[in-house]
Design goal:
The structure holds two protein chains of two kinds.
Chain A (H helix, E strand, L loop, with lengths): L2 E5 L2 E5 L4 E8 L4 E8 L5 E7 L5 E3 L5 E5 L4 E6 L8 E9 L7 E2 L3 E6 L1
Parallel strand pairs in A: 2-11
Antiparallel strand pairs in A: 1-3, 3-8, 4-5, 4-9, 6-7, 7-8, 9-10, 9-11
Chain B lengths: L3 E4 L2 E4 L5 E7 L5 E8 L3 E10 L2 E4 L6 E7 L2 E6 L8 E8 L8 E2 L3 E5 L1
Parallel strand pairs in B: 2-11
Antiparallel strand pairs in B: 1-3, 3-8, 4-5, 4-9, 5-6, 7-8, 9-10, 9-11
Classes of the chains: A mainly beta, B mainly beta.
């Protein structure tokens, strides 16, 4: 069975600092991995996805993530945090073969302070 | 208009009442999903439908039912609402390709008192 673990339910950074949100997955087959962002009172918006092409994936708003098979990780980073990055971030995993059900992590709430 | 529209956006209902949450999409995708979001638990799958005639239970389907009225419409019902069904509910849609990802609605915040 697939699963996702997000380390740290809350992360706080200063504006301009590096953002690192951690995600580890478990999957018996090559996974597809996603990061979604949820701004207050909104739905989930796709940030980026890994689909077995390049292991370093670039997304919207300056975010990127690197797929590391040996570490079963897909951590999300941004070099310089902006106040507008404050939101909740979800890592999710699915597999191919027609199943296509996304399994979500518990989420990480990112706070950015001046 | 939004790709995935959920109604109502907010709802307060009493214990024991029946309530329906509605979802419609304009993406033209066959697959639709209902998730529930609770703090610290992420999103959990309630039901999913791969086409109009294919409806499946997710990990937390007890106390819920669904209806797929058309390719574009997927409704979630709580037959007899209870307080621990207080949550944020999301509808989503996707094509069959697993690498596409989901398109989510803006959510329905349901409070059962």
């Amino acid at each position: 069975a697939q699963s996702v673990t997000q380390l740290g339910s809350h992360v706080s950074v200063s504006e301009g600092a590096l953002v690192l949100l951690r995600c580890n997955y478990s999957s018996s087959v090559p996974p597809y991995l996603f990061w979604y962002v949820q701004y207050p009172n909104q739905g989930l918006q796709l940030l980026l996805k890994y689909t077995s092409a390049a292991t370093l994936v670039k997304g919207i708003n300056g975010f990127e993530a690197e797929f590391k098979k040996s570490e079963t990780s897909f951590h999300l980073t941004k070099p310089s945090a902006h106040m507008s990055d404050a939101a909740e971030y979800f890592c999710a995993v699915t597999q191919g073969g027609g199943y296509n059900k996304l399994i979500f992590g518990a989420g990480t709430r990112l706070a950015v302070h001046p | 208009d939004a790709d995935v529209t959920q109604t109502p956006r907010n709802r307060i209902t009493k214990t024991g009442k029946r309530i329906m949450l509605e979802c419609s999409q304009t993406k033209g995708h066959d697959r639709m999903y209902w998730y529930r979001q609770d703090p610290g638990l992420g999103l959990r799958l309630i039901y999913y439908s791969f086409d109009v005639k294919d409806i499946n239970k997710g990990e937390i389907s007890d106390g819920y039912s669904v209806s797929r009225q058309a390719q574009a419409k997927f409704s979630l019902s709580l037959e007899s609402a209870i307080p621990n069904q207080t949550a944020l509910y999301f509808c989503a849609t996707s094509p069959p390709a697993a690498d596409y990802g989901y398109t989510f609605g803006s959510g329905t915040r349901l409070t059962v008192v």
